[in-house]
């Protein structure tokens, strides 16, 4: 056995080998040590190898999925070695023959299909990057849904696309992984080397054609050699990991950068589109917008948020669908109620195609297409916008399959086919017979005994059973003569004579005995055969089922976005080909939701109009910290994204000219792993914006230049704003504390000043969170520091220094060094606390009062006393 283990393991040196031993998967040697630590299970030993104990650990077969998930999340790959024959079959080959085993699957992060290993509401992409001469391409596939896409892209766009897709695993040519190690860290993906031969475009084309049974790829579109290489590498890897059992993939879709808004990784992170800065889903735009009721709808929503469209026809079609659902609330609510019962058709279909499914997946397909048929019948009565009409037309056409599955399956099947019991009674006569024999063998024998008594006229006839003869017919010697004589002797076969009894059998009884003894196994085998038959019937309709699933996702998303719009008072935006950007009463959806949940405080809505007559349209935003500048910047960037994904927006009104690129540089932190300071990160991100932004871009920038000396920072910020205006000619919001820059509004036609207003009251600053035209003349940094809790003596000293610096600036001529020399040094002597205020008469009265102890009359008397005390 150990020789077999070592032979199998030699083929998978980089994976943990799950070696099937009866009801357990066992691991040995270094695999056992690593797995025991990762899974926190006992490490034992079994036998010796080269004189040393062999470490061993194991996990139960029936609970293996949970352990697999833990190992995959911790970065391991697992080779699953199964028994390919029964111990009895092995014994037939020879007394000491070892049960045949081999790896049936290599489990990696990008090749998961089990429901328990995947997040239902997220895609799990496997991607491949290929380079052919000077061309680069990225292909990606989700084998749990069948989605298959490819695109050509420059090398500089690889990071942004990986940020958009968030693949679990990236395939690169053998030897190139070190060039991509930075991506592995940045995007949390698993990097896998694949033999360079797998990326050969000629061989790749043959693999693709073979997979889809076509002679040429022309029917799918025109693909570059790099795209073919990337797609072929994916197929080769799936063939390797699935051991030839390829998943059901849809025909490849070629994507282009020109059809979607380009958003880089830093912008996605800063805007918290699908993940909050803390790393989780909560607090992201996706979490607030997700009102979907199906898994396919949730995955479609994430794709739309990650890839807003730049095609006006597509945007308008999506908005029309949401508009219909919002205007027909009762119909939309009925749709959502039916959709709640729709299972995940895509993933059920994928598991069935890989033969990893079970009866529940058959039932999921049945239930899903049944609900689709109902929705088709209901919605066909309405005049629908084009997108919904197309979707509804794809819901029908499954009548025969529904009828077959309805007839064949019980309402709630078990998880595994091997458990049996999922085929409905009356579907197959031989199955019903086997079940009856299995469950009611005694009553069947009794019925046969009654038939024999009627046939022979011998009331003393009995059918009995023992371990030697099995089932037999027994009667007394007196009656036996009748059974030994014609015509009964033709039916009853003599088996044994004892002192007082004679025993017989019949062909019918012998067959029944065999059936009874094997009824349980036979019932299960019949059901397994029927399972495969039903599975094949479903797979023959896989294309139509896939289209139905996509249609259900569209219905779910349209009604979910309408539900969101009605609940949160969102409006339909006007999206066109102009350069307009006019938001009235805009709100940040995530901040607004958080305020409503935490304190019920209303969000202060603000306008933003970048629809200037000039080529560039930039608002220079000034105002204090904590006034809401960053929120304002982000909410307007999100407004464009939400509108172009095809949703209503959180505003009173919105007119948005198509945005081609979305850039955000809001907030930064050290990147110690790559030796970058906060300022360096800021400059790298700013450089990416200035080098890439076109005249259709929307840019939001916050505090450019803050991480260096004042004059250095001011000069960088100044030059950056001029570049955006003169070279990029983009629409932009530029927040800064360099008030000197407000002078640019008078010099550059496309720049306007705006400020976040505050109010001072008795030495304190009150944030109004309102944005209006104009410029701020101060940042109230000392007041914010006081709110943050800095020691009073630090605040007092800061006020002295600030006053001296401002005075010197007003009077002019005083250098910074002169001002510093004139200021007394910071005193290390603690500042004497201010004298306590004299206690008032009112304070003396209320000091010892316990309100819970007051009677109503006493409370009223107290009010009169307080009123009198207040006069003194």
Automatic annotation (TrEMBL):
NCBIfam families assigned: mutS1, PRK05399.1
Residues at which ATP binds: 623-630
Function recorded in the entry: This protein is involved in the repair of mismatches in DNA. It is possible that it carries out the mismatch recognition step. This protein has a weak ATPase activity.
Family to which this protein belongs: Belongs to the DNA mismatch repair MutS family.
GO molecular function: ATP binding; ATP-dependent DNA damage sensor activity; damaged DNA binding; mismatched DNA binding
Alphabetical list of Gene3D superfamilies matching this protein: 1.10.1420.10, 6.10.140.430, DNA repair protein MutS, domain I, MutS, connector domain, P-loop containing nucleotide triphosphate hydrolases
Name of this chain's protein: DNA mismatch repair protein MutS
InterPro entries on file: DNA_mismatch_repair_MutS (IPR005748), DNA_mismatch_repair_MutS-lik_N (IPR007695), DNA_mismatch_repair_MutS/MSH (IPR017261), DNA_mismatch_repair_MutS_C (IPR000432), DNA_mismatch_repair_MutS_clamp (IPR007861), DNA_mismatch_repair_MutS_core (IPR007696), DNA_mismatch_repair_MutS_N (IPR016151), DNA_mismatch_repair_MutS_sf (IPR036187)
Signal sequence interval, chain numbering: none
Record flagged with keyword Secreted: no
Annotated source species: Sulfitobacter donghicola DSW-25 = KCTC 12864 = JCM 14565
Keyword rRNA-binding: no
GO cellular component: cytosol
Residue ranges occupied by any DNA mismatch repair proteins mutS family domain in the UniProt entry: 697-713
BP GO annotations: mismatch repair
SUPFAM superfamilies reported in the protein's UniProt record: DNA repair protein MutS, domain I (SSF55271), DNA repair protein MutS, domain II (SSF53150), DNA repair protein MutS, domain III (SSF48334), P-loop containing nucleoside triphosphate hydrolases (SSF52540)
Keywords: ATP-binding, DNA damage, DNA repair, DNA-binding, Nucleotide-binding
């Amino acid at each position: 056995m150990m020789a077999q283990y070592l032979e199998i393991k030699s083929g998978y040196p980089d994976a943990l080998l799950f070696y099937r031993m009866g009801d357990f998967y066992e691991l040995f040697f270094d695999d056992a040590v690593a797995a025991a630590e990762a899974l926190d299970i006992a490490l034992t030993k079994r036998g010796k190898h080269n004189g040393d104990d062999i470490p061993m650990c194991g996990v139960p077969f029936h609970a293996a999925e949970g352990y697999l998930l833990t190992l995959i999340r911790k970065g391991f790959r697992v080779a699953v070695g199964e028994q390919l024959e029964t111990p009895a079959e092995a014994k037939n080959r020879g007394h000491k023959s070892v049960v045949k085993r081999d790896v049936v699957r290599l489990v990696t992060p990008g090749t998961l299909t089990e429901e328990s290993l995947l997040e239902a509401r997220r895609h799990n992409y496997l991607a491949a990057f290929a380079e052919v001469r000077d061309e680069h391409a990225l292909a990606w596939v989700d084998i749990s849904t069948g989605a298959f896409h490819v695109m050509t892209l420059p090398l500089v766009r690889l990071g942004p696309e990986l940020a958009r897709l968030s693949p679990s695993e990236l395939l690169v040519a053998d030897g190139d992984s070190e060039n991509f190690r930075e991506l592995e860290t940045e995007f949390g993906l698993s990097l896998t080397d694949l033999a360079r031969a797998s990326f050969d475009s000629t061989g790749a084309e043959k693999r693709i054609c073979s997979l889809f049974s076509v002679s040429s790829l022309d029917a799918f579109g025109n693909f570059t050699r790099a795209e073919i290489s990337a797609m072929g590498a994916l197929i080769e890897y799936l063939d390797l990991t699935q051991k030839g059992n390829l998943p059901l993939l849809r025909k490849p879709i070629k994507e282009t950068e020109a059809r979607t808004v380009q958003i880089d990784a830093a912008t996605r992170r800063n805007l918290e589109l699908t993940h909050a800065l803390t790393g989780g889903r909560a607090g992201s735009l996706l979490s607030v917008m997700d009102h979907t009721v199906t898994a396919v709808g949730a995955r479609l929503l994430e794709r739309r948020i990650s890839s807003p469209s730049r095609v006006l026809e597509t945007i308008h079609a999506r908005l029309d669908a949401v508009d219909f659902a919002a205007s027909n609330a009762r119909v939309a609510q009925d749709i959502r109620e039916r959709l709640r019962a729709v299972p995940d058709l895509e993933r059920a279909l994928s598991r069935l195609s890989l033969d990893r499914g079970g009866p529940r997946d058959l039932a999921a397909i049945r239930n899903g297409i049944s609900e689709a048929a109902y929705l088709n019948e209901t919605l066909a009565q309405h005049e629908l916008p084009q997108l919904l009409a197309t979707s509804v037309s794809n819901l029908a056409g499954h009548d025969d399959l529904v009828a077959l599955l309805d007839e064949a399956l019980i309402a709630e099947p078990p998880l595994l086919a091997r458990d049996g019991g999922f085929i409905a009674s009356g579907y197959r006569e031989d199955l019903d017979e086997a079940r009856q024999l299995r469950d009611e063998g005694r009553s069947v024998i009794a019925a046969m005994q009654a038939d024999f008594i009627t046939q022979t006229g011998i009331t003393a006839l009995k059918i009995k059973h023992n371990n030697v003869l099995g089932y037999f017919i027994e009667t007394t010697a007196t009656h036996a003569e009748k059974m030994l004589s014609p015509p009964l002797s033709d039916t009853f076969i003599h088996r044994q004579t004892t002192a007082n009894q004679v025993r017989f059998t019949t062909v019918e009884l012998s067959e029944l005995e065999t059936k009874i003894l094997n009824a349980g196994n036979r019932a299960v085998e019949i059901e397994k055969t029927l399972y495969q038959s039903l599975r094949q019937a479903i797979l023959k309709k896989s294309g139509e089922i896939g289209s139905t699933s996509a249609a259900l996702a569209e219905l779910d998303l349209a009604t979910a976005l309408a539900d969101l719009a009605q609940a949160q008072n969102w409006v339909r935006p006007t999206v066109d080909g102009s350069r307009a950007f006019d938001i009235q009463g805009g709100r940040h959806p995530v901040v607004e939701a958080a305020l409503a949940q935490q304190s019920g405080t209303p969000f202060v809505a603000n306008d933003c109009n970048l629809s200037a007559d000039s080529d560039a349209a930039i608002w220079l935003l000034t105002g204090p910290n904590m006034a809401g500048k960053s929120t304002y910047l982000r909410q307007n960037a999100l407004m464009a994204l939400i509108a172009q994904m095809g949703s209503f927006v959180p505003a009173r009104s919105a007119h948005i000219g198509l945005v081609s690129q979305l850039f955000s540089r809001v907030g930064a932190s050290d990147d110690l792993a790559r030796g970058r300071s906060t300022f360096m990160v800021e400059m790298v991100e700013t450089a990416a914006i200035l080098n890439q932004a076109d005249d259709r871009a929307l840019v939001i920038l916050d505090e450019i230049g803050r991480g260096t000396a004042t004059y250095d920072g001011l000069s960088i910020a100044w030059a950056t704003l001029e570049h955006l205006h003169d070279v990029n000619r983009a629409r932009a919001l530029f927040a800064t504390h360099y008030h000197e820059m407000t002078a640019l509004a008078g010099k550059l036609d496309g720049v306007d000043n705006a400020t976040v207003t505050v109010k001072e009251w008795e030495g304190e600053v009150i944030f109004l969170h309102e944005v209006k035209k104009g410029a701020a003349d101060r940042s109230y940094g000392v007041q914010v520091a006081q709110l943050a809790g800095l020691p009073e003596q630090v605040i007092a000293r800061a006020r002295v220094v600030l006053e001296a610096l401002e005075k010197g600036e007003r009077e002019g001529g005083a250098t910074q060094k002169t001002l510093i020399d004139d200021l007394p040094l910071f005193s290390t002597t603690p500042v004497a606390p201010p004298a306590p205020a004299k206690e008032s008469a009112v304070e003396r009265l209320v000091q010892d009062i316990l309100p819970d102890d007051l009677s109503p009359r006493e409370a009223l008397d107290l009010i009169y006393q307080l009123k009198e005390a207040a006069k003194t």
